[in-house]
Amino acid sequence: MSHPARQLPSLTEVLERRAVRGLLRRLKRDVVVALLRDVLQECREDLLDNKKARRRFGPQTPTRAVLLKDVEARLMDASAELLEPRLERVINATGVLLHTNLGRARLSEAAAREVARVAREPVALEVDMSTGQRGSRNERIANWLRLLTGAEQALVVNNGAAALWLAVHSLGARRRAVMSRGEMVAIGGSFRMPDLMRSTGAKIVEVGTTNRTKVADYAKELREGDLVVKVHPSNYRIEGFTEEASLDGLAELCRQRGACLIFDAGSGSLYNFGRFGLTGEETVAASLRRGADVITFSGDKLLGGPQAGLVIGGSRWVDRMARHPMMRAMRCDKLVLSALEATLAAYAATDDPPALPIFESLKTKKTALRSRARALQDRIDPHVPTGWTVSTQRSEAAVGGGSFAEHPVSSYEVTVRPTRTVDAQRLQRALRAGKPSILAKVGDDALRIDVWTCSQDELEIIGERIVFAIGELAS
Fold first, then answer.
1. What is the pTM of this model?
2. Rounded to the nearest 5°, which phi and psi values hold at 231?
3. 8 A C-beta contact, residue 413 and residue 395
4. Contact predicate 65/7, CB 8 Å
5. What Cα–Cα distance (Å) separates residue 359 from each residue in 80, 107, 298, 364, 441?
């Protein structure tokens, strides 16, 4: 008897199925054929693996008719997944406001409108309309940053890591870059400062120790023409017996030795968050006044804008970065520039917290958060089966984005604790699987919904979805 894999239908047989003919009206034939080839290969591999074949088709050897239906079903699932937008909406109930995996900062309504406007029409991206000559796409953002920070010059690239790389590479390739061992950090999934620094072509000179680095440690190694690269530790902290070289001290040393001081400020900020009780993250303007020659920071974290890498500093340094050949590979498109300009304009409009979502969240009163949480609990409580519990309690949320790691934000969460027969992870998976997806925490055998990172409308959706999921899991 021939192997079941030999009974797989041909491409032509599958393409003649009614449902597949309908699919061909939505997708080009070449695309459907390519998907179908992948599906047939997947099915073939399953049939060659006895365990997979039994799980898929049961103990009986599948007939050609069964395989034809199976291939058709797999093809329709694959096409549906392909046509589903990848960047689907997610409700953030994690308590981490600037969640890297969820796109970090929400744009303001003004910024979103600008993105929609410039997406639909030609814009003066790189043309000076007064002369008709080619202009600079960087100039308007640079002007905003000069006005807001007091910097001589500014630049924008596509992300924070690119800004730091361009600074070190354009100013220090084949030169020495002196860094503290305590700042050779790893951030996020695969961002490792030593790897990025080595790729710039600069010779890395490490000074000090992991927990203590003084200005004197830099002084022992620093030569004329060197770079000093100081790095914000982001979400990494060393506590106890520690010491860190101050920006002021390093700036004075660099002036004495004829070196350039680059400060990677990480999240970076144009606003004093101390007004919200969050300390330890000075503004980039303050860092510039303390003597840094070049400062790099992100646009989509504390700034509250789109993903971008911002550079401010002295003209002699920033102009060299702007002329570097890699600048073209790192430039931003019109959508990012429009969102960034609208975001920076919000800072120029007032000394009060700008009209940006991050500040709206920070201004939310604790009493309002408690009311939100209790309303969500009241929505869920009547539908909780015997043995399940729902409660409201204080929680510690986080700004996120590698900022204010030592300052949790006081919030409230609704805790749904199932019986031992139902794993809280199953409840979490049920929320993730719906539309829109809901991302929440699981801890201490319970689902935890932090209300600080959710709007009122989103909490209503969460309540409905939890009630539905409880009904499904408890039945």
1. 0.90
2. -120, 130
3. yes
4. no
5. 39, 11, 17, 9, 23
Residue 419, pLDDT score: 85
Burial string for 140-166 (b: 16+ CB within 10 Å, else e) reads: bbbebbeebbebebbbbbbbbbbbbbb
- Rounded to the nearest integer, the mean pLDDT of the chain is 92
CB 43 within 8 A of CB 7: no
Q: Is the pLDDT of residue 309 over 70?
A: yes
* Secondary structure (H, E, C), 96-164: EEECHHHCCCCCCHHHHHHHHHHHHCCCCCCEECCCCEECCCCHHHHHHHHHHHCCCEEEEECCHHHHH
Percent of the chain having pLDDT more than 70?
Answer: 98
**Total Cβ atoms within 10 A of residue 70:** 19
Alpha helices in 258-333 (DSSP H): 284-289, 315-322, 327-330
Q: Which residues contact 60 (CB under 8 A, 6 or more apart)?
A: none
Residues 6+ apart with CB under 8 A from 438: 90, 91, 93, 431, 432, 461, 462, 465
Tallying the residues shown for the chain, one arrives at 475
CA torsion angle for 270, 272, 277, 278 (degrees, to 10)? 40
Domain architecture of the chain: domains with CATH:
4-83 (no CATH), 108-354 (3.40.640.10), 362-474 (3.90.1150.180)
Residue 353 pLDDT grade (very low, low, confident, very high; cuts 50, 70, 90): very high
Phi, psi of 153 (to 5 degrees): -150, 160
What's the count of helices (H) and strands (E) in the chain, helices before strands? 19, 17
SS3 85: coil
Helix (H) or strand (E) holding 71: helix 64-83
Asked if residue 210 has pLDDT above 90, the reply is: no
Say yes or no to pLDDT of 188 above 80.
Answer: no
Max Cα–Cα distance, the chain, nearest Å = 86
Q: How far apart are CA 199 and CA 204, in angstroms?
A: 10
In terms of Cβ atoms closer than 10 Å to its own Cβ (0-12, 13-18, 19+), residue 281 is: buried
* Calpha distance 335→107 (Å, rounded): 12
Helix (H, G, I), strand (E, B) or coil at 384: coil
Are the C-beta atoms of 348 and 340 separated by less than 8 Å? no
List C-alpha distances in Å: 116 to 61, 88, 139. Answer: 55, 18, 21
Residue 336 near residue 309 (C-beta atoms within 8 A): no
